[in-house]
Amino acid sequence: MDRSIGKFEIIRRLGGGAMGEVFLARDPSIGREVAIKTILPSLGPMDDVRQRFAREAQAAGLLQHPNVATVFEYGEDHDVLYLAMEFVPGEDLGAVLLRDELNGAQILEIVAQICEGLHHAHKQGIVHRDIKPSNVMVLRDDDGLRAKIMDFGVAKTAHSDLTQTGQIMGTLAYMAPEYLRTGKASPQSDQFSVGVLLYEALSGAKPFQGETTGAVVYGIIHDTPRPLDPEHLQGVSPAVRTLVERALSKEPDERFASTGDLAKALRSAKDPLWSTTSDATAVLDRPTPGTTKRVKVASPGIRGWTWALGLGAVAIGVAVVFRLPKPKAIPAIQTPNAANMHLNDLVLDEAERLVDTRPKDALLLIQGVIDATPKDVPMDPDAYALKLVALHKQGDLEAFGEALGEARYRGVTTKDLLTNKAYKAMLERDKTKKKLQDDLRARLLKGE
Fold first, then answer.
1. Domain 4-86 - what CATH class?
2. 239, CA 20 to 30 Å: which among 79, 137, 365, 381?
3. φ, ψ for residue 385, nearest 5 deg
4. How many CB atoms are located within 10 Å of the residue 312 CB?
5. 79 counts as catalytic
6. How far apart are alpha carbons 380 and 411 in whole angstroms?
7. pLDDT tens digits for 388-432?
8. Backbone dihedral angles phi then psi of residue 285, each to the nearest 5 degrees
9. The CATH homologous superfamily of the domain defined by 91-268
10. Which of 92, 100, 130, 396 is catalytic?
11. Confidence check: pLDDT of 54 > 60
């Protein structure tokens, strides 16, 4: 690296990784120290890289908040793309958490500051989409610990043609279930990411874990994380459990109305004696079905409620009525691309793992992939093959016949279905189980 980039004088290298490098530099015109983030030209087509960098510059450049790292300038120098941003003399939250040196109140304060920075971004129409510990810097100043949100490279900005709705971007373990289902990010999905971060910061473990990526996807969409142990809440209110559970609600409307409200609740919970029921000035409303929850917040000074992946059969004499129910869980996304198809593969792998022991759960995953595949995009034969296996396992032969007809309608032939080993093995086993009619089984095994 030259001793300068653009107008900035390089002082020293701060770090780097697969994406590029970060340098401490000086703006000679005003003497201010800045962090210079560069992107490696080898990452891919330069137009794509420019778009990602431009997105980050446009998103962060709109924000002026003490808990968001300020971006000063975006440019290109001799084919090197760079961002000049506020130099934060601290370390990322992930490194801080590894040392296990923060107490409960400090964790709640840091996360509250993250929430406030996000609330400011959300009011500007910006959704971060990748909140996680490594994207938060923590520094110590005269007022104690301060959090700074970094890396708006995958942020979604309102009315931006640089953002592709339906494309999964971010870090899987911190993604909200509705983001995985639809690919559409919102302030509520950022709040879910904060909930994951908070759970991890307090307990030392992520709330949704699994041996495979598919298992993690399944957990995010379906599983309730284990409640925080009392030992994780020493020195703070036990009501933190409730706050975490609400931030991690599967339905966006069941979370806090905003990250600003969550920030206020977290600050209240720094008091070990605070509770959601005893504090008359802070009421957590439970909405009626179909309405959005709102949090009533006390006046200032009174405790109150208030961080990339993208997931035909021939006519056989079976009467088909297209009345398949659509499960609520849809773990795939709407816009097909390589990352998204890879996510679908992972989801179907997890469905195949579950199909023998938990066919109902497997069907939820499978139907999500089917529902999220646009009609003009070729259907993955594995989706219908595994759906048929699950229905056969449940003994639902009427739905089995309907699924065969639907597969044909979506362009999946019986020969295509036979490429799936689990489906073929199911037909072979049925020679003994005899759930299917002999002539139907024989024709399916021949791919007719």
1. alpha beta
2. 137
3. -60, -45
4. 19
5. no
6. 10
7. 999 999 988 888 988 998 898 889 999 999 999 999 999 999 988
8. -75, 145
9. Transferase(Phosphotransferase) domain 1 (1.10.510.10)
10. 130
11. yes
